[in-house]
Amino acid sequence: MTKATHLREMSSDQLHFTLTESQKELFRLRFQAATEKLDAPSNLRKLRREIARIYTVQSEREKTAAPKAAAPETEPPKTAAPKTAAPKIASKKTAAPKKS
């Protein structure tokens, strides 16, 4: 299993390849678990976490690349209008009509 720091050092192609291999291995382990031939059930959890780490590193890269492209067209944030209290309306209790 790899750590996030090691994953961040990889190129995008290497990361994609690692993701594909991890997903294939997870499939194999799930198949073994279904047929009750799995030696170490903890490997399922480890692989799921590794796949999540890879997705996290990929999304971090996308987020850092996106602001650079969209930087020229930024608008200043809009200020919110001051909040005013809504008028309180007294609720009237109405009696249900009586049945005869």
Write up what this structure looks like.
The protein is mainly alpha-helical and 100 residues long. It has a domain at 4-61: Helix Hairpins (Orthogonal Bundle). 58% of the residues lie in helices and 0% in strands. It is built from 3 helices and no strands. The protein has helices spanning 4-9, 12-34, 42-70. The protein is flat and about 75 Å long. The chain starts with a helix and ends in a 30-residue tail after the last helix.
Could you write a compact summary of the structure shown?
The chain is mainly alpha-helical and 100 residues long.
Please describe the structure with a list of short key phrases separated by commas or semicolons:
100 residues; mainly alpha; Helix Hairpins; 3 helices; flat
CATH architecture descriptor text of the domain at 4-61: Orthogonal Bundle
Which term fits the overall shape? Answer: flat
Considering DSSP H and I runs of 4 or more, what fraction of the residues is helical?
55-70%
Q: How much beta, percentage-wise?
A: under 5%
Described by strand count, sense and barrel closure, the largest sheet is:
none
The CATH topology of the domain at 4-61 corresponds to Helix Hairpins
Total number of helices: 3
User: What is the number of E strands?
Assistant: 0
**Order of helical and strand elements:** HHH
How is the topology of this model organized?
Layout: H1 4-9, H2 12-34, H3 42-70
